Amino acid sequence: LEDMGLWMKFHQIGTEMIITKSGRRMFPQCKIKVSGLIPYAKYLMLVDFVPMDNFRYKWNKDQWEVAGKAEPQLPCRTYVHPDSPAPGSHWMKEPVSFQKLKLTNNTLDQHGHIILHSMHRYKPRFHIVQADDLFSVRWSIFQVFSFPETVFTSVTAYQNEQITKLKIDNNPFAKGFRE
Question: Which UniProt keywords apply (predicted)?
Answer without folding.
Answer: Developmental protein, DNA-binding, Nucleus, Transcription, Transcription regulation
